[in-house]
Every structure is written in structure tokens, then in C-alpha cells.
Amino acid sequence: MAVYEDRIIEAVFSNYLLIYEVDLEEDYIRVIYETPEQGTFGMLRETVYSDFIRKYIHERCDTEYIKICEKGASIKNLQKELAKKDVLAINYTVNYGKWRSVEYRISEKKEDVPTKALLCFRRMDDDRAETFRLHKEQEKNKALLEYALQESKQANIAKNAFLANLSHDIRKPLTSIDGYASLAVSSLDHRDTAKNYIDKIRQANQQMQHLISNVLDITRIESGRLELAESSVNLLSIVDELRTIVTPLAEEKQQELSLITDIQDHVIICDRSKVVQILTNLLTNAITYTPEHGSVSLLIKQDVPAPDGYGSYEFIVEDNGIGISKSFQRRMYEPFERERSIHEETVSGTGLGLTIVKQLVTMMGGALGCTSQKDKGSRFVVEVEFKLAFQDVFSFPSSAEPSILKKPEKPARRKDAVSPVMQPIFAGKRFLVVEDVETNQMILDEILGQLGAVTENANDGKEAYDMVKSSADFYYNAILMDIHMPVMDGYKSTQKIRKLENSMLASIPIIGISANAYNEDRRKAQDVGMDAYLAKPINTNELIRILKEAML
User: Fold this and answer.
1) Which architecture characterizes domain 229-405 according to CATH?
2) Fewer beta carbons within 10 Å, N or C terminal of the chain?
């Protein structure tokens, strides 16, 4: 019977040369199984576990594994790991170059806390094969660590380059704003000169907004939080907006800029701000990397055929600038990448523009292509299908024909064009401006006043609600409602207005205004009953368009 039991034990423990039982509570170890040929390999049969394992590791393990084994075999780590799993394996090399492997197997628990474990020295039937396998595993892990380290270094280099570029690009418009503001103040007695300086300030502000928008969007793209907010949009109005943004940049370099449309269906369903961002990034890149007196163009074409209810469009941005090398074209869509060239110090850019363009085009289900030659120019083509919508009641005749900004005949000391005076298109209209910041309130009052409207002010959402509730029918044509205010915010105020018993007052158009321009903010505005949403700083053309649509 004893022989039979010995065979069973031998069969059960056949994978191991030596097994100890470790008392994790008492810090004690004793042999429970050994082979007659090997015994305990010269180790004590029972003793204090902490002393035993420390002596074994320092006498027999290779130096590079001492810390790993000490940490893995500590009582604290065993209690932690064996509380989560039944087996903990530790691989290491001994000081004569052979791989060894031990297993800690849980043998006793009290209330799910490990109290005893078996320390099992594994048998290796083919020591050379096992040594080779473990060595390969070590090499693989080492390679992965080296790769991760290299990736980390490259990411750090890219981050530092990005921060350096960002710092440079922020300082440039800030310096312009500060400088032109001082010049405008000193030129108040000369209206045209002061107005030119103010136009320069506006251009620098637009550059700053564009830069900040790119930085914010790349973080949201990488975190998967950027979404499309689609609505009915007239493509011709997008061209008008692009003209306003990029014309001053092209004029400054005396470039020929053409914005041409060749489309039959003007009104589509799309995310207007994202389409504008795609085309703005491509056009500003083209202007930036095209020398003075060069040419930049945008052509919007509508191709046929297209699926029923959809239109197939091509947006082609072309320039005769410095071009892009073949090697850089392979990585030009990666974040923070900029091509190193003799022009590097003379142009700005964080290396995010093309990354964002690529991601946004992909989100829209489109394709982005590029052909370029060094010193000859570049051609970017965006191909995308948009769902068609009804034709807009507002026409934009200025965009229907090709628009070409010619080079100035006299490049020296060019006089900037003076912005036209705003027309009183809202004459007879009354708007309630709800804004807690006095400066923002004053700016909106001034813009709307120049457009012919009368404005009244509320400093918070509760005051706005009280003013609307006590007003006569049709007294206010629309409400411009800031979102974040003390006492009562714009969301709550809108909800209360929409619940008024008087249906005429409850249905007054409300336009939300906030510095937050993300889709979740727009959705929340829509959910509480707002008719539209404007992002700060306010763009006058966008304000006019939204007010017109809201008051239909």
C-alpha cells in the first residue's frame, strides 16, 4: 500500500524536483517532496522562509534577476498575487547560465486570504529546449521594452517640438495684436489709418482662433470624443466665409487667390464648422508655403453620378508653392510633423493642420489625396458625398461666380482695403442680450446696433426670464442667451421660458452663446429648447446668418 501511495505522489509531483510548503502567516518553510537523486540541492529542509529565500536568491540567481526575484517571492507580494490567482510563476537564470522556473501554488486560504503556499521547483525534461524558449522570451520582452522606450523618446521629442512651435505661433499673433492696438490708439485722429490697424488686429485674432481650434480638436480626435454636428448648409455661404478668412492672408503676400464653384446642388447636410475647418487648413497651408506673388486656388466641383439623394463633391486646393518632398508625403498626416527645409524659420505651424484634415475627412466617409513636387507646388483633393437638402431661401450671388483676388500692381506700401460699413438689415428688430460680462454685452449691443437693431440687456438667466415673462407679444424678435452665468444659467432660463403659458412668449427664438464649441454643448442647447448656438468670439457674418434663420 505504501509503495502504491508513493507512486501516486510521484505521478502527481512528476513535474517538480522539489516542493516546499510556505506558511505565509508564520514566515516558515519546510520540505514536503523531494526526489531521492537530487534531495534539496544542498538547501535547508526547514527554516524561516524570508531567510531561506534571501539566501537562495543571492547565492544562486544571476545579478540581473536578484531584484525581480526578491520582489516576486516576498510574502507581501505572494499574499497579493495569490489572492487574485492560484499560481504565480517566476523565471530566472542561475549563476551558471541555466534557466530555472519556480511556481508558487496556493494551498490554504482563510476568508479568501492566502495563508499557505507550495514553492515548487519545476523539472525541465529538456533543459536546453527550455533554456532556449525562456531566452527567446527574455529577448522578446527586452525588444518590447526597447521599442516602448524608443516610442517614448520619439513622443517626447514630438511633444517638445510641438510646444516650441505652439509657443512661437501664439506669440506671433499676440505680438501683432499688442503692437497694432498701440498703433490704433495713437492714430485715433486718423480714421482710415486706425481702421487699417484694427483690421490687422482682427486678422491676428483669426489666426489665434484657428490655432487654438486645431489644438483643442486634435486632443478630442485622439480621445475619440470629436463628433459631427450635421445641419442644412449652403456651400456658397461656406465659400463666402472662407473668402473672409483667407483673403487677408493672401493679400499680405500679394498672391493671386481664386475661389471657384462648379456645382448644381448648393444646399447639403454637413457639419458646417468641420467643412470650413478642412478647407481653411488646406488654404492657409497653401498660402503659408507659397512665396509672395504666387497663386492659390480652391475649386469646388460636383461630380455625377451619385447615389439618390446625395451629391458627390470634390474640393481641390492647389498652389504653386515650395511643394512637399516624396519622403515627407509618407508621414505628413502624422501629428506635430513639419517638413524641415530652408523655409522652416520663416513659416509658422504646429504640424496639426493636415492631421486634423485627414481625420475629419475620414469621419465624413471621404477620401483625401495629394500630389506634389518640390518647388513646383501641391494639389490636395478632398472627395466626399453629402446628403442633399432643400435649397436655402437666402442667396449668395457673390459666390456663384468665380472670385479672383488679383496681385496688387504695386507691391510696395500696399494700402489695405477698408471694411465696408455694416448695413441696417435688422432695422425695426429688438433683441434681448443676456450676458453677465459687461465687455461681451457691450460688443453685442454695438454689433447689433450697427445692423439697425434695438437691444435690451439682462445680466443673468433669471433677469432674462422675468423680462420675457412681463413683455408683450412680439416685443422681442430674438434672445441671445449666454450659457454660463451666475444666479441662473442660460440652459435653465431657456427651459423656463419655453414653459411659459403664453405660447407667443414661449416660442421666441433663442440663440445660445458660449465659449464652448463642442457637439455635446450644441446638443444640450438643442435639448433645452434653443434654436441655434454660437461660439465665442462672435463672428458677425455667422451671427447675421443664424438670426435670419431663427426668425424665419
Assistant:
1) 2-Layer Sandwich (3.30)
2) N
